[in-house]
Amino acid sequence: MRSTKTETAGALWGSNRPHIHAPSQAQRKDNCNSPGRSTPANLDVLLSRLNSVRKCGSGWVAKCPAHDDRNPSLSIGESDGGVVLLKCHAGCSACEVVNALGLEMSDLFPASSSGPGIDRNHLRLRMREAELCASANVLGLESKVVQLCAHDACSGVAISDEDLARLNVACARIDLARALIGGAK
Fold this sequence. Notes:
Layout: H1 3-13, H2 43-48, E1 51-56, E2 59-63, E3 74-78, E4 84-88, H3 94-100, H4 120-154, H5 161-180
Antiparallel strand pairs: 1-2, 2-3, 3-4
Helix pairs in contact: 1-4, 4-5
C-alpha cells in the first residue's frame, strides 16, 4: 500500500476505523428520501432501539448501529424544537444510523410544529438540501478511495485485503448517495 493512500484513508477515517457494513437492499430503498410518516418516532423510541445507551451531559451516547461499534461513538441529542440530533464520531452519516435502526429521516423531526412562522414544507426542503449536500460530500470523498485503488491497480501495485474491504465500503456508500439524490441504482 502506498503512503499516499494510507495518509488519505487515515485522514478520512482515522487509523482504527471499524468496518462499516454495507446497507442491505431493503435498507437502501430510499428511506432517507421519504416524505415522512404520520407518527414519527420520538426520542424515547429511538433510544430504546440503541445499545449501551447512557446519559452524557445534556444528551446521550450509545453504540452506533451502522457499524461494528465496540465503544459508544454515537451522540444523541434533541434541539429546542424537538428535532433529534445524531452524530457518529466514527463517521457514519445520520442517514446510515437511521436506516440501521429501521427508521426514516423524517422520524427525527417532531410530528407537528405549532410554533409561529414554521412552515413544514420549508423544513422538508431544507432537509432535502442537507441530504443533497451530504450526498455530494460522500461522492467526493468516496470517489477518492476508488481513484486511489484504480491508480494502484493500473500501476501494477497489489491491492491489500484491507484496501479491498475499504473499496467495497466506498462503493456501497456511493450507491447509497446516488440513490438518495435520485440517480440510477
